[in-house]
């Protein structure tokens, strides 16, 4: 049982946590891209981690120097191309930040102004926090709104942006406004509402007309329905280690925080603009000063990293990753290059940040091998074995309940030992799993079911069954004790 609890904690603590990838830059990066090394690494990585497909785009200066697709985009076996759209995840936040900065440069948004200046009906459960919250707090992730509440909103994406914002009336910040960094999707959902209110157009239309079109991002969308003609990559998740194509929930109200779609080719246009003072070819989406402000470190995240506005900054690297329930993305920029990695799967037991680090190493002339990536088969063999142990223990417990109805030897030492066992394995452990682990992971069980299908379900329902069988065991022991006294 100790092994079971240890593995559950590992599984769910790993889930839903996006940690900055350590990216080091070589002193003298090579002048040309080593395409053969990149291809060999990517193909080996996809094979080792059982990833169906991916796309990679690399930018140097003001042009894309390498764009390629790998593997397949879905169950039908269609090859991934540089034009295949992927759901981006949280890299979408940088687009939302760009939209806000555009409106700020036009004098329509003041970053120092209260959110209520643009959303008069905006309410949190804490009235003082509602009044104190400024636009910049949302951009910098210092609103005090919690990671837990931000993740909970993911499973309520079928609501509109306005409905999501109205629902915040029952949400209280978990720390004082402006007091420190706390990553929350709610911040960028609110910013999406501000963009709509100030621009007078729906968020998706604004992003399309003011960012996608000027940057010639012709295969980028704010809705998966709009992307259907371009056959977007189907998302995948490992279920007990078997990589499975899974549908995404509706995310209409959470597009601004994590559900834009784009292709590797289009994202190179976006990175070029970000690396070249807001310009792509003859189009400008933001001033040089605005881009610099967007990339300026604002809130310390610990470990040397800081959050800017829709970007993370660590020394000379500006980057962000993104994870949905079944897709992954990573984009990074240094003084020398930028790259975008898109993957049509997501796996929280075998994370993909090592792939991004490997790409970075190769770009800097280092030797990188997919052999350094986690062992997918071993990880899921251990995870599945742990789940089987849990189920076997429950079956054994149910058998003992049936057997103890007439066969339990109710001596005092045996009764005491059994009650200690029940208290530990049928009360403390399942309650810890059901109540403590979600708090540690800052994610509800509903979110865990979405992002960790199979294993999360096993441990949740197994915990409930442990409570039930524990109660049945206790009743059987008490009954046996009563029968023993009567017989005496």
Q: What would the principal axes of the Cα set say about the shape? A: globular
Helical proportion?
Answer: 40-55%
Measured distance between first and last alpha carbons: 36 Å
Rg of Cα set: 25 Å
Q: How do the strands of the widest beta sheet line up side by side?
A: 2-1-14-13-12-11-10-9
Average pLDDT, to the nearest integer?
A: 90
Number of H/I helices: 17
Q: Low-confidence parts lasting 5 or more residues at pLDDT below 50?
A: 1-28
Assign the structural class, choosing from mainly alpha, mainly beta, alpha/beta, alpha+beta, or little secondary structure.
alpha+beta
The number of strands is 14
Report the sheet-strand fraction. 5-15%
Biggest sheet descriptor: 8 strands, antiparallel
Helix-strand layout with pairing:
Elements: H1 2-14, H2 35-48, E1 53-60, E2 63-71, E3 86-87, H3 92-105, H4 127-132, H5 135-139, H6 147-152, H7 161-167, H8 185-199, H9 203-212, E4 236-239, E5 242-245, H10 255-258, E6 261-262, H11 264-275, E7 279-280, E8 283-284, H12 288-294, E9 299-302, E10 305-307, E11 312-314, E12 317-323, E13 328-333, E14 338-343, H13 353-363, H14 376-407, H15 412-441, H16 445-451, H17 455-487
Antiparallel strand pairs: 1-2, 1-14, 3-6, 4-5, 7-8, 9-10, 10-11, 11-12, 12-13, 13-14
Helix pairs in contact: 1-14, 1-15, 2-13, 3-8, 3-9, 7-8, 14-17, 15-17
Structure write-up:
- The chain has 488 residues and is an alpha+beta fold.
- Helices cover 46% and strands 13% of the residues.
- It contains 17 helices and 14 strands.
- The protein has helices at residues 2-14, 35-48, 92-105, 127-132, 135-139, 147-152, 161-167, 185-199, 203-212, 255-258, 264-275, 288-294, 353-363, 376-407, 412-441, 445-451, 455-487, and strands at 53-60, 63-71, 86-87, 236-239, 242-245, 261-262, 279-280, 283-284, 299-302, 305-307, 312-314, 317-323, 328-333, 338-343.
- An 8-stranded antiparallel sheet has the order 2-1-14-13-12-11-10-9, sandwiched between helices. It has a two-stranded antiparallel ribbon with strand order 3-6.
- Strand 4 and strand 5 form a beta hairpin.
- Helix 1 (2-14) runs parallel beside helix 15 and helix 3 crosses helix 9 (203-212).
- The longest helix has 33 residues, at 455-487.
């Amino acid at each position: 049982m100790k092994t079971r609890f240890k593995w559950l904690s590992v599984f769910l603590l790993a889930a839903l946590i996006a940690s900055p990838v350590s990216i080091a830059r070589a002193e003298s990066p090579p002048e040309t891209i080593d395409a053969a090394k990149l291809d060999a690494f990517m193909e080996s990585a996809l094979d080792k981690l059982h990833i169906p497909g991916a796309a990679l785009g690399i930018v140097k200066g003001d042009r894309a120097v390498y764009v390629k697709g790998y593997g397949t985009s879905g169950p039908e076996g269609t090859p991934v191309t540089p034009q295949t759209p992927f759901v981006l995840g949280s890299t979408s936040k940088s687009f939302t930040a760009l939209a806000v900065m555009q409106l700020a440069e036009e004098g329509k948004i003041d970053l120092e102004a209260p959110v209520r200046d643009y959303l008069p009906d905006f309410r949190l459960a804490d009235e003082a926090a509602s009044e104190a919250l400024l636009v910049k707090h949302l951009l910098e992730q210092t609103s005090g709104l919690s990671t837990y509440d931000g993740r909970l909103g993911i499973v309520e994406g079928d609501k509109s942006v306005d409905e999501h914002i109205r629902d915040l009336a029952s949400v209280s910040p978990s720390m004082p406004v402006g007091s420190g960094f706390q990553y929350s999707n709610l911040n960028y959902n609110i910013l999406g509402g501000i963009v709509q209110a100030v621009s007078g157009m729906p968020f998706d239309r604004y992003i399309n007309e003011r960012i996608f079109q000027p940057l010639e991002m012709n295969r980028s969308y704010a809705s998966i329905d709009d992307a259907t003609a371009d056959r977007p990559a189907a998302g995948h998740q490992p279920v007990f280690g078997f990589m499975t194509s899974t549908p995404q929930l509706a995310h209409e109200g959470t597009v601004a925080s994590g559900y834009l779609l784009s292709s590797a080719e289009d994202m190179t246009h976006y990175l070029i603009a970000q690396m070249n003072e807001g310009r792509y070819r003859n189009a400008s989406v933001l001033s040089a000063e605005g881009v610099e402000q967007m990339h300026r470190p604002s809130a310390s995240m610990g470990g040397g990293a800081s959050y800017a506005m829709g970007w993370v900054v660590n020394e000379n690297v500006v980057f962000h990753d993104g994870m949905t329930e079944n897709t992954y993305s990573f984009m990074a920029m240094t003084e020398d290059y930028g790259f975008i990695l898109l993957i049509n799967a997501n796996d929280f037991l075998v994370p993909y940040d090592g792939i991004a680090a490997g790409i970075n190493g190769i770009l800097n002339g280092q030797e990188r091998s997919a052999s350094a990536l986690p062992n997918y088969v071993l990880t899921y063999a251990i995870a599945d074995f742990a789940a089987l142990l849990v189920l076997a223990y429950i079956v054994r417990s149910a058998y003992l309940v049936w057997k103890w109805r007439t066969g339990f030897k109710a001596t005092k030492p045996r009764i005491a030992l059994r009650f200690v066992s029940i208290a530990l394995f049928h009360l403390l452990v399942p309650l810890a799993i059901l109540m403590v682990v979600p708090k540690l992971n800052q994610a509800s069980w509903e979110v865990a079911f979405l992002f960790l299908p199979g294993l999360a379900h096993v441990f949740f329902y197994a915990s409930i069954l442990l409570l039930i069988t524990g109660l049945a065991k206790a009743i059987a022991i008490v009954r046996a004790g009563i029968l023993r006294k009567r017989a005496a």
